[in-house]
Write a structure and sequence with these properties.
Helix content is 30%, strand content 33%. The chain has 623 residues and is of the alpha+beta class. The structure holds guanosine-5'-diphosphate. InterPro entries: EF-G-like_DII (IPR053905), IF2_II (IPR044145), P-loop_NTPase (IPR027417), Small_GTP-bd (IPR005225), T_Tr_GTP-bd_dom (IPR000795), TF_IF2_bacterial-like (IPR000178), TIF_IF2 (IPR015760), TIF_IF2_dom3 (IPR023115).
C-alpha cells in the first residue's frame, strides 16, 4: 500500500468532493480510516484523522462513535461526502443478514395470498375537541365487547365491529389520541395508520393543532374523515367547519369534494355509526387493505410497559401474517416467545390476524412504541437480531452522549492529563422517567475536564448484560424505581460495580453531580501559613546555616514549603523547613511570638532581617 500524500503535515489521501463514503450510525474514526483505505488504496492511520479533526476544533478518540455533524465537518476537510446510513436502512440490512427481506417478501406475495384486513384508524385533532371522548363513544358502540362481558382495558388499540352494507366488518382504532403518537411512530419509520379521523369541535372551529394534525396526515398520504364534534352544543356551527377546511384542501362531499364530513356528538353518542360507515366507505374507495395472513407475523409495537406481575407487556398491531401463542418474536431490542396474548377486553387470544391489536406477554424487555416486530422460525434468531440491534443502539447512544469539549480546554486538559469521564447506565420503570433523567444528567454543568457519558439506558430491571457493560466501561449503574435481578445482583457484587437506586430524579442528579465534582482534579492555591523574622544566623559546618527566628504570624511547620524574602524580594524559593527546633528539641510546629531555629537544608544565603515565609497549598473549593 502506498504512502498517502501530506495534508497539513498529516498523511491523508484527499478527495475532490465527488465521492461518498457510507458509514453506519455509531461509526468511529477507525471505521472511516478503513473505508478511506479501501477507497483510495492509500494507507490511512486513524491517528492522522484524529489529528485532522483536532485541527478542526473537535476532539475524539479513534474508536469513539461520532455523530453525523462531526463526520461531515471532517469529510468536508478531506474532500469526501460522508453519509450516515439511516437506522431504518441499517435495520433493513441487519435483518437481511438473517435472510429476512421484508420488502421483498411483500413484493413476492401473489394476489391470491392476500385477504381483506380492517383499516387501522387514528383519531387526531386539537386539544379538547373531543378525541378521547370520541374514542370512548366508539368503543362503547362495540356490541361484541358488550356481549363478551369482558372488562375493557386500555391497551393502546382496540377493534370494533360494525354492520356495513349488511356485512359485519371490523375497524381498528389506535386509542392514543393525538398526533404525537402518530408522528413519533412515523419518525421511527413505522406507518401503522391507514386512515385518520380529524376531530373538529363545531363550537370552536379550526385551531392550530387541527392544522398540524391535518398536515401530518396529508404528509403521510393518509386519507381523512372529518368528525365535526360537539354538534349538541349551543353555538355549534358545523357548516363553518366545512367551509374553513376547504382552505386546507378538505372539501366536503356535499360541496363537490371527496372528503366525508360527519356531524357527531361524542357526548351523546350521536352520529357514531355514520362515522364508522364513513371510515369504511373512505377506506374502500381509496385504499387497498389486504394482507397475507398465512405467514409469520410482522407488525409494530404500539404501546408497551413493564407490568409488576406479568413482566414486559407490549401491544402489537399485526400488519401481515398471523401471530400465535408460542411464536418466537423480536420487537426492537426485545425478544422472547409469546407466552400469552390478550385483547382489549382482557380475553385470552390464541391467534391474531392482520390489523388485530393484541397485548403480548413473554418479551425479555420493553420495546418502544413504533418498534417493528416480527416472528422468526427459531428462538435463537430472534435473540440474535435483538442483540445486534442492541449493539447498534449502544453505539449510537455513545455518540449522542459524548459531551464536547472545546479545543482550548481540551489542549489544556490534555496537557495536564485531566481528561476523564464518568460513565453511566440508566435503567428505569418507565421510558419517560429514564429520558427525563438522562436529559437532566447531560445538563449538569461541570468542568470540561470531566465528561459524562451515558453508555446505555432502558426500561426494565437491571440485567446481567447491564452489569457486563458497566464492567467493561467502568460505569455506575442507576436504577430508577427498578432493581437488579438475582443474577445481575450477584454479578455486580462480584465485579464491584456500583449500583445505585433512586425513586426521585433530584436525588439521582444530586449524587451524580457531587461525584462529578469529586472527580474533578483539585486546583490548589498558595496560602501563606506563617512568617518568621531572622534575628540571628548560626553557622554550622554540619547542618549549614541555621536561622534563629521569631515567628511573627501564623505557624511555622516542619517540612512546610518556604521562601526567603529580603526587603520585599524573594531571594530563595522552593525551599522547605527541613529542620525546626525550639532550644535543643526537634518540634513539628512553632506558633506566633515564639522563637525557633530553622534549617533550610542546603540553602545558606540568609541574613539577619530576612523573612522566612511558609506556604501551604490549599485546595480551591469548586463553585
Ligand atoms: P381531547 O383533548 O380532544 O381528547 O378532548 P376530550 O375528549 O377530553 O374532550 C374535551 C371536553 O369536551 C370534555 O370535557 C368532554 O366531555 C367534552 N366533549 C367531548 N365531546 C363532546 C360533545 O360531543 N359534546 C359536548 N358538549 N362536549 C363534548
Amino acid at each position: 500500500m502506498r504512502e498517502a500524500p501530506q495534508l497539513g503535515g498529516v498523511s491523508i489521501p484527499r478527495g475532490d468532493g465527488s465521492r461518498t463514503i457510507r458509514l453506519r450510525r455509531g461509526a468511529s474514526i477507525s471505521d472511516l480510516a478503513d473505508k478511506l483505505e479501501t477507497l483510495t488504496n492509500f494507507s490511512v492511520q486513524p491517528g492522522a484523522l484524529v489529528t485532522a479533526l483536532f485541527h478542526l476544533g473537535e476532539m475524539a478518540t479513534a474508536t469513539e462513535s461520532l455523530d453525523e455533524a462531526t463526520f461531515q465537518i471532517l469529510g468536508e476537510e478531506l474532500g469526501y461526502k460522508i453519509q450516515i446510513v439511516s437506522p431504518e436502512d441499517e435495520d433493513k440490512e441487519l435483518l437481511e443478514g438473517f435472510g429476512l427481506d421484508l420488502e421483498q417478501e411483500l413484493e413476492d406475495e401473489d394476489d391470491s395470498d392476500l385477504e381483506i384486513r380492517p383499516p387501522v384508524v387514528t383519531v387526531m385533532g386539537h386539544v379538547d375537541h373531543g378525541k378521547t371522548k370520541l374514542l370512548d363513544a366508539i368503543r362503547k358502540a362495540n356490541v361484541v365487547a358488550g356481549e363478551a362481558g369482558g372488562i375493557t382495558q386500555h391497551i393502546g388499540a382496540y377493534q370494533v365491529w360494525t354492520e356495513h352494507d349488511g356485512i359485519e366488518r371490523a375497524i381498528t382504532f389506535i386509542d392514543t389520541p393525538g398526533h404525537e403518537a402518530f408522528t413519533a411512530m412515523r419518525a421511527r419509520g413505522a406507518q401503522v395508520t391507514d386512515l385518520a379521523i380529524l376531530v373538529v369541535a363545531a363550537d370552536d372551529g379550526i385551531m392550530p393543532q387541527t392544522v398540524e394534525a391535518l398536515n401530518h396526515a396529508q404528509a403521510a398520504g393518509v386519507p381523512i374523515v372529518v368528525a365535526v364534534n360537539k354538534v349538541d352544543k349551543e353555538g355549534a356551527n358545523p357548516a363553518k367547519v366545512r367551509q374553513q377546511l376547504t382552505e386546507f384542501g378538505l372539501v366536503a362531499e356535499e360541496y363537490g369534494g371527496d372528503t366525508m364530513f360527519v356531524d357527531v356528538s361524542a357526548l351523546n353518542n350521536v352520529g357514531i355509526d355514520e362515522l364508522l360507515d364513513a371510515v369504511l366507505l373512505t377506506a374502500d374507495a381509496g385504499l387497498d387493505l389486504r394482507a397475507n395472513p398465512n405467514k409469520d407475523a410482522r407488525g409494530v409495537a404500539i404501546e408497551a410497559k413493564l407490568d409488576k406481575g406479568r413482566g414486559a407487556v407490549a401491544t402489537v398491531l399485526i400488519q401481515s401474517g398471523t401471530l400465535r401463542v408460542g411464536d418466537a418474536i423480536v420487537a426492537g431490542t426485545a425478544y422472547g416467545r409469546v407466552r400469552a396474548m390478550h385483547d382489549e377486553n382482557g380475553e385470552a387470544v390464541e391467534e391474531a390476524a392482520p390489523s388485530r391489536p393484541v397485548q403480548v406477554q413473554g418479551l425479555s424487555s420493553v420495546p418502544r412504541a413504533g418498534d417493528t416486530f416480527l416472528v422468526t422460525e427459531e428462538d435463537r434468531t430472534a435473540r440474535q437480531i435483538a442483540e445486534k440491534r442492541e449493539a447498534v443502539e449502544r453505539n449510537a447512544q455513545l455518540a449522542k452522549a459524548r459531551k464536547r469539549i472545546s479545543l482550548e480546554d481540551f489542549t489544556r486538559a490534555l496537557e495536564e492529563g485531566k481528561v476523564d469521564s464518568l460513565n453511566l447506565i440508566i435503567k428505569g420503570d418507565v421510558s419517560g422517567a429514564v429520558e427525563a433523567l438522562e436529559e437532566s444528567l447531560l445538563k449538569i454543568e461541570v468542568d470540561d475536564s470531566v465528561q459524562l457519558r451515558i453508555l446505555h439506558r432502558g426500561v426494565g430491571a437491571i440485567t446481567e448484560s447491564d452489569i457486563d457493560l458497566a464492567t467493561i466501561d467502568n460505569a455506575i449503574v442507576i436504577g430508577f424505581n427498578v432493581r437488579p435481578d438475582v443474577k445481575a445482583r450477584e454479578r455486580a457484587a462480584r465485579e464491584g460495580i456500583d449500583v445505585r437506586f433512586y425513586s426521585v430524579i433530584y436525588s439521582a442528579l444530586d449524587d451524580i453531580e457531587s461525584s462529578l465534582k469529586g472527580m474533578l482534579k483539585p486546583e490548589y492555591e498558595e496560602v501563606q501559613s506563617g512568617v518568621a523574622e531572622i534575628r540571628e544566623v548560626f553557622r554550622s559546618s554540619k547542618f549549614g546555616n541555621i536561622a534563629g527566628v521569631i515567628v511573627r504570624s501564623g505557624t511555622i511547620t516542619r517540612n512546610a514549603k518556604a521562601r526567603v524574602i529580603r526587603d520585599g524580594v524573594v531571594v530563595g524559593d522552593n525551599l522547605a523547613i527541613e529542620s525546626l527546633r525550639r532550644f535543643k528539641d526537634d518540634v513539628t510546629e512553632v506558633k506566633t511570638d515564639f522563637e525557633a531555629g530553622i534549617g533550610l537544608g542546603r540553602f545558606n544565603d540568609i541574613q539577619i532581617g530576612d523573612e522566612i515565609e511558609t506556604i501551604e497549598l490549599v485546595e480551591k473549593p469548586r463553585g
